[in-house]
Amino acid sequence: xxxxxxxxxADPPSPARQAALLTLLADDDPGVSGQIRSRLIAxxxxxxxxxxxHRLHDDPAIRRRVREVLDHFGACEADRALVHFLGTQGENxxxxxxxxxxxxxxxxxxxxxxxxxxLDEWALRLGDGMAExxxxxAMLERINRFLFVELGFKGxxxxxxxxxxxxLNLVMDRRVGIxxxxxxxxxLVCRRLMLPVAxxxxxxxxxxxxxxxxxxxxxxxxxxxxxxxxxxxLRRLKQFAVDYEDTVLQPISxxxxxxxxxSNLHLIYKERRAREVVARLERYLLMLAP
Length: 290
Fold this sequence. Notes:
59% of the residues lie in helices and 7% in strands. It is of the alpha+beta class. The protein folds into 2 domains: 12-88, Leucine-rich Repeat Variant (Alpha Horseshoe); 95-288, no CATH class. The protein has a 4-stranded antiparallel β-sheet with strand order 3-4-5-6. The protein has a two-stranded parallel ribbon with strand order 1-2. A hairpin with a 5-residue loop joins β5 and β6. The longest helix is centred in the N-terminal third of the chain and has 29 residues, at 60-88. The radius of gyration is 23 Å and the shape is elongated. The relative contact order is 0.09.
């Protein structure tokens, strides 16, 4: 039995005791505040029930520390949900579900339903005039104009290694990202439109591909949705002296996309020596590995 189980259903502390704990939680001395934080976490879910009542406390310092403790519990719950998802889904897992579950491990309060609704709304706005597009290229140009001109999505060239570029909630909020996160937005919108668009895991870059029996276009979301041919893509690989196989421009599965997204973050946090985050990401990568 978990030693905290017996405390999870205990009565909450008295109002006076709660006030004392909150004051110590916000103490300027890290040793004091850290000890109280550890104690509250050790007491398990019982802490969440009474601590949630103080989420909007008048004291900003207390408010911030309360959020930190609640975020810890939220992140633990999200971690369990993601691990269960990865352990029960196959190669063609639901990419959107996986991405949002992963997002919540870092941002447990992210309003996922609102972000999903935003993607729905963007697709709806695009779909209203999509019938006017007679070719795949015309449809893609319409999508590109909407996402990269009207909404202003763009590649973050100046701060490419900022972790914010890889979490879908922040990418949608800030309208900037790296190739794979921008392509993820592109994919999720196109899937709502029932378009034949897939992810292409090119070495050192990530693209989307639109393909029908009559047309094939590669979409570079990092560069404003630039449309490329297969020859253009192979020419880029040769230009940068990248070794590649014949299958390099074949679509990759949703599981591989999620693996690559997390792998990028793993490298960033490893460089920053964020050991706890690195260890957590490594668990996900191990579960996603071929």
